[in-house]
Amino acid sequence: MLLVSAIPASAQIAEVPPLTGLQIPGSDFSQWHTEKLPGFLTFGTSECTEMPGSETLFWDCGNPPFAASGSKKWPTQRVILPDGSTAAKLQTRKVVGVIASGNLFTGRVMRDMGLKELLTFTSDGNKLINWGIPYKLRPKGYRIKFSYEGLGDECSITALLENHEIDEKGKTIRHYVATALYIGKTDSENQTTCPTTISEPDENGLRTLEVSFIYGERPEGALPLPEGTDQVSADTEVTHINVIIASSARGDYFKGVKNATLIVKDFELIY
Predict the structure, then answer these.
(1) CA–CA separation, 165 vs 173, rounded Å?
(2) Which of 174, 208, 241, 260 has the highest local Cβ count within 10 Å?
(3) Phi, psi of 69, rounded to the nearest 5 degrees
(4) How far is Cα 162 from Cα 2, in angstroms, rounded to an integer?
């Protein structure tokens, strides 16, 4: 069960089921579903056909809060590749003067936002998301197919093994046990110290990226730790896995370059 007691009662987020297999369901990004999302500026609902995975809640994206603007130019969309397969297209957008990174993540973002929650989200996008899936294994790394056109921006593809606990104030603290991280202005060079291999592009123009976990320490080149997180030793128990993929690496703080585009498919944990 994900720990959500740090979120006000008016903003509770649906629980995410535990991961029972070796891989996260829906990680090829071939499955998509439609949701009717509440709008704020639109005073009604907005139908989004661009929601990742089935409705089993393993993968989510930032489209639900984006729906509050009434825009149909979703930052996260499905795309058909030259070989006919389906992938996810993450494209940084700008709406009502605010940068919105295309993203995919394991966990659940709040849907039914009022003005208070919307203002909270637009100051720090981390605060109204339940991060991660209950998980106890210790993989070696991850593999994914991707391409990136950053236009001067940086993308990020992050897998975190975490230990979640509740402090004495009822707040969820996320302890980082291990990190496998790619940050790049292109799809050919990792700017962090995580061990990385990258293939040549395939028929779809996608490279195969493999990144190894670093246990017990923060990789050089990683972004600063978010509020409510810290780094712990390698032997700490793993309780959750948190995967975050973004067309703008600083998108959670609404920084990025409009139209930076990241295409991904076939995310896989390596054991």
Answers:
(1) 5
(2) 260
(3) -80, -20
(4) 12
Best CA proximity match to 96, nearest among 126, 123, 66: 66
Reported pTM: 0.87
Cβ partners under 8 Å of residue 73, min gap 6: 93, 95
pLDDT beyond 90 at 42: no
Please answer whether residues 40 and 57 qualify as being in contact, where contact means their C-beta atoms are separated by less than 8 angstroms: no
- Residue 196: how many CB atoms within 10 A of its CB? 18
Cα–Cα distance for residue pair 270/198, rounded to 1 Å? 15
Q: Which two tokens stand for residue 84?
A: 């006919």
Q: Cα–Cα distance between 92 and 256 in angstroms, integer?
A: 7
In 3D space, the residue among 241, 248, 218 whose CA is nearest the CA of residue 231 turns out to be 218
Provide mean pLDDT across the span 141-167.
96
Three-class SS of residue 158?
A: strand
Q: What count of other Cβ atoms lies within 10 Å of the Cβ of residue 132?
A: 25
Digit-coded pLDDT (tens) for 87-126: 999 999 987 778 889 999 999 887 765 555 555 555 555 5
Nearest to 117 by CA among 7, 248, 236: 7
Q: Which residues pair with 35 in a beta bridge?
A: 48
Query: Which tokens sit at 11?
Result: 């903003």
Q: Burial level of 62, CB count in 10 A (0-12/13-18/19+)? A: buried
Helices (H), the chain: 63-66, 115-123
Q: Sign of the CA dihedral 27, 32, 34, 38?
A: positive
